Amino acid sequence: MTTEPDEGPRHLHTPADHLRLAADPATGEDVLRGLSQSPYPFVWQALAANPNTPPAVLGRLCSQRDSTWNDNLLVARIACHPRADRTVLRGLLDELRDRLMAGDRPFAAVLALAERVEVTPDEILGLARLPGASARLRRGVRSRLAGRAAVGE
């Protein structure tokens, strides 16, 4: 018995269908764009982990909110994503600034951003200086920036 392939989000019947397509690296960019409108945080996570998710979708995902744990994992995945360009990372930087100021602790995303050459050391240090940043985060940021400088020499 064979089944017809899904043509896009209009043929999704269950949350598992959304997740399967969002996680599949063979899923086309148009379908991934449609999936970014999903109400399911696990779909957002899968999109942020899919190496073929386009930058525009990653940018849209930066501000998605569900729960602290899911939100922090999502922004950390976006910060590490290979297709997250300067525009996406700049938006993520702004989002992380807001979250730190609100008392959230998206530390993994801040540390991942510190390793990205698309973001300047001054931009990262600005996050580390915010009231919501811990001493441990500041040490981690300095360490990652130092490692980045050593590689660039």
Description:
It is a single chain. This protein has one domain (13-152). It is built from nine helices and no strands. It has helices at 15-23, 29-35, 41-49, 55-61, 68-80, 86-101, 107-114, 121-128, 135-152. The model is unreliable at 1-8 (pLDDT under 50). The chain has 153 residues and is mainly alpha-helical. Residues 7-21 have a biased composition (Basic and acidic residues). It comes from Actinoallomurus iriomotensis. Residues 18-68 form the Leucine rich repeat variant domain.
Short account of what is shown:
The chain has 153 residues and is an all-alpha fold.
Give me the secondary-structure topology:
Layout: H1 15-23, H2 29-35, H3 41-49, H4 55-61, H5 68-80, H6 86-101, H7 107-114, H8 121-128, H9 135-152
Helix pairs in contact: 1-3, 3-5, 4-6, 5-7, 7-9, 8-9
Total separate domains: 1
Beta percentage is under 5%
Helical amount? 55-70%
Arithmetic mean pLDDT: 91
- Helical segment tally? 9
Kindly, what is the distance between the CA atoms of the first and last residues, rounded to a whole number of angstroms?
59 Å
What keyword list fits this structure?
153 residues; mainly alpha; 9 helices; 0% strand; disordered N terminus
